[in-house]
Design goal:
By secondary structure, the chain is α+β, with helices and mostly antiparallel strands. The chain has one domain: Umud Fragment, subunit A. Strand 6 and strand 7 form a beta hairpin. The longest helix is centred in the N-terminal third of the chain and has 26 residues. It is globular and about 75 Å long. The termini are far apart. It comes from Prochlorococcus marinus str. MIT 9401. Its main location: membrane.
């Protein structure tokens, strides 16, 4: 082995192995995420840092109340895809863009690469409605949601994406933000209101920032 190869392996080998390890963990086990918006207030504050756990959902489905991270609707909603002026980005491009500072470079970000975080509120087979306040009705029963503090105004100028009596398809879920008055979620997706299980990346497992809120999610 010549000196140039030895020098390369010495300088870059550990970095390559570390990159491979981190990439594998992100793909199969867990990854960090931050909260960029107020759509999940008050449970999740802007700039909270979380660990998203992926492994458990490989063999089970999310439960009502789980907070999940999922692929951007711009990557799977047929009507949103049809409105694009360019093809969908490749998965490897989105993976590359998920590392700072790449995601902050103007012109490189693609909405289809974003990840969203919402709460699972309705399960496959359930008949679901959302009223003008953003309240959830399942199988004709108003559901208590203690995590929802911000409901919609009844003003005609502040509609809440309400709908009535739609059955959640097999392998799909309704996901909504806790901040019902300020969340772009299944109520507003033009192609379908429901999220397929294959689009789910993982679920919120542990909050590591701020330290005052350190702890596991129920």
């Amino acid at each position: 082995m010549n000196a140039a190869i030895k020098s390369f392996l010495k300088e870059w080998g550990l970095l390559i192995l570390l990159t491979f390890f981190v990439s594998s963990c992100r793909s199969f086990l867990a990854e960090p995420r931050y909260i960029p918006s107020g759509s999940m207030l008050p449970e999740l504050q802007i700039n909270d840092r979380l660990i998203i756990e992926k492994f458990s959902l490989r063999n089970s489905l999310p439960k009502r109340g789980d907070i999940v991270v999922f692929n951007s609707p711009y990557s799977f909603d047929d009507k949103l895809i049809s409105s694009r002026s360019k093809p969908l980005p490749k998965k490897r491009y989105c993976f590359f863009m998920s590392f700072p500072p790449m995601s902050f470079i103007p012109g490189l970000r693609d909405q289809a690469c974003d990840a969203y975080i919402k709460r699972v509120v309705a399960l496959p087979g359930e008949i679901v409605s959302v009223n003008t306040k953003g309240e959830l009705i399942i199988n004709d029963k108003l559901i208590a949601e203690p995590y929802v503090s911000y409901k919609c105004s009844l003003s005609l100028f502040n509609r809440c994406g309400e709908f009535e009596n739609i059955k959640v398809p097999k392998d799909h879920f309704l996901v909504l933000g806790d901040n019902r008055s300020n969340s772009w979620d299944g109520r507003y997706w033009p192609g379908s209101k429901f999220l397929h299980k294959k689009e789910i990346i993982g679920k919120a497992y542990f909050r590591f920032w701020p330290l005052s809120q350190l702890g596991f999610f129920q």
